[in-house]
Write a structure and sequence with these properties.
5-stranded parallel β-sheet, 8-stranded mixed β-sheet, 430 residues, 17 helices, Rossmann fold, alpha/beta, binds nicotinamide-adenine-dinucleotide, 2 domains
């Protein structure tokens, strides 16, 4: 039976390790965080992902998945450690370097070494391969070294790990084939082989495509606020064109992928990437735009009570990394004019630097309820209860996710449709 060593047991590494363990491989999960390792050895997990608690319990009980703080010899090494950005927006590949150095003493001739972490173009050739070479391992001949980026959607990770098409970029054609075979054993989607740098770049461009298109939708939301147009209606009509697909505006772009990956390209080709850089700036400006609109919506009140709903960077997950909702909550909390209550059913107190309340507590006597994340719980909110409990039944839906009855007593403002603002507020805008 093949042994696989997965380095980094987060949102990507832990499901990956579990899927290989479930397929019958002998898997060792390695993490520098001892709490993660101890939990996993008890069959428990530290993250939220649909189906993962059950799968981990099963594969740990079966003895197929174990965890440790140090690697061991294996046939295949898969690195899935974080690749955040530095304060200056350059890529921090230190975790990838550390993880590579950690496995070097255990690598043997013929092993497959895969980096799944998202990395700047040329990192496999210019950073990872030289670390092996310095340790006396020829990266082009002794091992099969490849980059296989991950493109799963949180909330559907266990399904997409199996069904998605995988791009496998080898630093040699043989490495691509050998690494591809690792995935072919468990993946039902296509496994496409290419060079490492093409795989690095294709992953980055997937997320950059989405970031740039969201920036266009966000720019439309701002234009619409200025001109008194309903952007959601505009998008609906424009998208009737067979070759147009305008994305949805929102409160900003978060997460460790869309909000980070475009910078990896900008860093390597700054002069050639002004569109990508401007899109990042537009998306980064959205929290301020939301705060500004909250100011307009509550301008006539002395001490508005705000119920802020949602902190994660997208719906139905517990991940708050780079979340624009956190930035918005912090900005509102810093403004003494507001009494701010914050609620997110997926977030635990220890994840955020402020106190959380229940939805009922947040909405009680609130003048404005602000939806920052499209969690199902918010989409299914009981309108009757809300209107009863709120001082003024007004909602600012920054995700355009709320479905309200035609005869609703709620007033709903949407990020792309602020046309219902009062005349005084309209006047202050123009
Ligand atoms: N989460 C996603 O949806 C997603 C999707 C596509 C790509 N990615 C990419 O996958 C990579 C991993 O992301 P993630 O979301 O799983 O990160 P994560 O932060 O959830 O998990 C990373 C884990 O690696 C551990 N770690 C850090 N340095 C280590 C080391 N030297 N040795 C062993 N363990 C170490 C951390 O303790 C942590 O538990 C990133 O490059 C990310 O951009 C993530």
């Amino acid at each position: 039976m093949k042994k696989i060593c997965v380095i980094g047991l987060g949102y990507i590494g832990l499901p990956t390790a579990s899927v290989f363990a479930k397929a019958g491989y002998d898997v060792l999960g390695v993490d520098v965080n001892k709490r993660v390792v101890d939990l996993l050895n008890k069959g428990e997990i530290h993250i939220e992902e649909i189906g993962l608690p059950e799968m981990v319990r099963e594969v740990v009980a079966a003895g197929n998945l174990k965890a440790s703080v140090t690697p061991e010899k294996a046939d295949v090494f898969i690195i899935a450690v974080p690749t955040p950005i530095h304060e200056d927006y350059t890529a921090n590949v230190d975790y990838v370097k550390d993880a590579t150095k950690a496995i070097v003493p255990f690598i043997e001739k013929g092993n497959v070494v895969i980096v799944e972490s998202t990395i700047p173009p040329r990192t496999m050739d210019d950073v990872v391969a030289p670390i092996l070479a310095e340790a006396g391992i020829d990266p082009y001949n002794d091992v099969y070294l490849a980059h296989c980026p991950e493109r799963v959607l949180p909330g559907r990770i266990l399904i997409e790990l199996i069904e998605n098409t995988r791009i496998v970029g080898g630093i040699t054609p043989e490495a691509a084939t050998k690494a591809g075979d690792v995935y072919r054993a468990v993946v039902t989607g296509d496994v496409i082989e290419t060079e490492a740098v093409t795989a690095e770049m294709s992953k980055l461009m997937e997320n950059t495509f989405r970031d740039v298109n969201i920036a266009l939708a966000n720019e439309l939301a701002k234009i619409s606020a200025r001109l008194g147009v309903n952007a959601h209606h505009v998008i609906e009509l424009a998208n009737k064109h067979p070759r147009v697909n305008i994305h949805l505006p929102g409160p900003g772009v978060g997460g460790h992928c869309l909000a980070v990956d475009p910078y990896f390209i900008i860093e390597k080709a700054q002069a050639e990437s002004p569109l990508i850089a401007e899109s990042r700036r537009i998306n980064n400006s959205m929290p301020d735009f939301v705060v500004e609109q909250i100011g307009r919506l509550t301008a006539e009140l002395k001490n508005p009570v705000l119920a802020v709903c949602g902190l994660t960077y997208k719906g139905n997950i517990d991940d708050v990394r780079e979340s624009p909702a956190i930035e918005i909550a912090e900005k509102l909390l810093a403004d003494s004019r507001y009494d701010v209550r914050i609620h997110d059913p997926h977030v635990r107190d220890e994840q955020v630097p402020f106190k959380l309340t229940t939805l009922e507590e947040a909405a009680k006597d609130a003048h404005l309820l602000v939806i920052l994340v499209d969690h199902t719980e918010f989409k299914l909110m009981d309108e009757g209860k809300l209107t009863e409990n709120m001082k003024t039944p007004v909602i600012f839906d920054t995700r355009n996710c709320l479905k309200v009855a035609d005869d609703t007593k709620l007033t709903v403002h949407r990020i792309g449709d602020l046309t219902k603002l009062s005349a005084i507020q309209e006047a202050s805008l123009l």
